[in-house]
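Exercise 7. Given the components listed, write out the predicted structure of the assembled complex. Treat all entries as one system.
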Amino acid sequence: MLRFLIARLSTIGVTLLVVSGAIFVVTEILPGDVAQMMLKKEATEERLAALRAELNLDRPAHVRYLSWIGGVVRGDFGDSYVQKRPISEIVPRRIAHSLVLALFALVLGVPVAVAAGVWAGVRPDTLWDRVVSTVGLVGISLPEFVTGVMLMLVLASTLHWLPPSSHILAGTTPWTRPEILVMPALTLMGVLFAYIMRMTRANVMEVMQTPYVRTAVLKGLPMRRVILRHVLPNAMLPTITIIATNFGWMLGGLIIVENVFSYPGLGQLLLRSIQTRDVPLLEALSLLIAATYAFSNLVADLAYTALNPRIRYA
Amino acid sequence: MRLMNGSARLLMMIALVAAMGMLIAACGSDDEASGTLRIGMVADYDTLDPPKLLGLPGTITVEATYDVLVMRNPDLTLQPMLATSWEPNADASEWTFKLREGVKFAHGKEFTAEDVIFTFNRMFEVDSPLASVMAKPTDIVAVDDYTVRFEFGTPNVVLLDSIVKYHAHITPSDVDPARFALETFGTGPFRMTELVIGERAVFERNEDYWWEGHPLVDKMEYIFLTSPEARAEALKAGTIDVIFDLDIASIQTIEDHPDTKVIVAPSGSYMNLAMDVRVAPFDNILVRKALQAATDREAILQGAQFGRGGIAYDHPITPSDPVFNDACLPPDYDPELAKRLLAEAGYPDGIDVTLYTATAGAAMVEMATVFKERAAPAGINVEIVVVTEENYWADTWMQKPFTTVWWGGRPPYEGISVVYPTGAAWGESFYSNARVDELLDIALGQGELADQIETFGELQCIIVDEVPRIIPVFRPVSLGMRNNVQGMEPLWDGTMSVHRVYFE
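Answer.
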């Protein structure tokens, strides 16, 4: 188990290093740098040169990368070019905001999706199954900026149930004013629901055909017990992977959702950092998201072993 | 049967919990403090250092927390602020400002002449955008603690045009300038009590403000909202009171809503087509005149700006300006005239031109598209190349011979002097005319309106006749606001008079 963990963690380390290098190369290739993005039309050669010198952009690319990655290894992510303050001051607040939103969406979405999937999988090809499947397909097909704006029009503009934008008012937090989370969370759930529900349904259908389930039913166990003790644990294995990978994906989906609703989380910060070519901030956020992906997969694999005694890591 | 009941119960429980969660969430309080003005605006991060300001939201953050020496009101009258009076000498080469006494900066320092000197010297040191249009003083002298004299050596009647700008907000001389980027230290009507970059800035009324009775609201919140849709919906729902500034596409929906209104300010900001007059075919004045005649200004106004803003006449002076010359106007849209001019220029079968544009602000791509359509009947075949917006200003503008541009509003002298004189820093047309240079020198020494009308009148005639640029439309500057917001008018330089805003 320990060897497995060490192997996995070092793979994750290499992955993150590759990601950071790739992001850096891409930002070097992208047209325009932070000085041009900031000065826009006021960019004379002298002003560009002065700003680049101020931000240490006048050094060669590999020197900038190496000094940055050197800092990261020591736990120093550097300063944002645009905000001119340490990234470690900017990001935690945004992480908290995004995490609250993601967890809110997961807590609302996963039980509903799993329950709907089990329901549909146990009784395939009924009317209920078809309704659930269709809803799932619609959710998977519509992009977030469509569902988001539709929700905004219906729930905020027409019915006036919820505030139309999710900005955080002075003196409040998403905890004290959770109504701002509802529409972004519903939008995120749209896609999440479809993935998890369909995966659960397929697995439940498969497990329902197995001899041990038939045996359980024939020996007279109550159906509820069969589902909860025999079907669900076996059917949940692949579903857990989906939930875990979706957690990483959700951080990406947050980019769109947070911008549609003006919710100040990681996604909004990430988009701004791309638009302004704020490379240190972009690198830090990308690493964070890559790390979330990697670690949520690791957690999924560990959950596998817990749920399935046949898989053991020596 | 048991299965149905079991899972049905489970499902119902989950649904119930979810519904309850949403119900609780939906019942959050609608805390609306009265006397708090909430302004929604673009979420760009920006510096708060006055001489380095580049746009919203920095400009109006500084406006709320600092003061200028002299303010230009929406009706273009001048209002004494930190300067109580000002006077040029006989040839306007020296200007003396009397300063207001007993004014304190936010950190307690008394405002005196040394702060004015510090502010303007630093403006040139840091190469502020204003430094490219304001004549550099040969010296700034503190006559006494409350009198300061700007010395130029040559006449400069347009000094006040620069003094009123947001880059010229007065900063204290005893603070490390590095701190100006993220903190505010001014003498202004509000104190910034909270700044969360990318989210909000909170301001409270400066109780010691020197201007009796102002400001008129107790508190302001700038709320940074990323998408124009979110801004418009938030205004209609009443979670914000003002949108600054309003994008053109949202004007209609804000106007139609019963609780909100739109204020469109006269603006000197414009969109134009720049031609490099050194490069064929634009070196041929007849080709430029043909393009001028093939420009359908009304169609561009409708197609690119939904009819908002105003028609422009190929120079940057607005028709409402006293020095506007209505004797020298470009021809109305006339494809036949354009054809004849092209034939005369040696292009009897029409001409192909390539126009570079990008979504780098204003409605440049839309303007290019309408221009192309309406120029086609004149035998002018425009190929539009849309390049990426990121490096448009660095790699395309002033590099390619035919580009779209937009400019902010500037007073007449500045508007002409940044572009048209020989070797101008932003001489996007690389135009040179000795008479234009001469007239601009003359204008700097003319304090009387009658003289200015004559000088600027001749300048307009030359520029319209030689067509280094085509300027079809002025852009609208608009604010969306709740019906109960009064006294807020967008100012000509893109700030908004927070001193005078109040709730009805």
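Discussion: Chain B touches chain A through 60 residues (CB under 8 Å). The radius of gyration of chain B is 26 Å.
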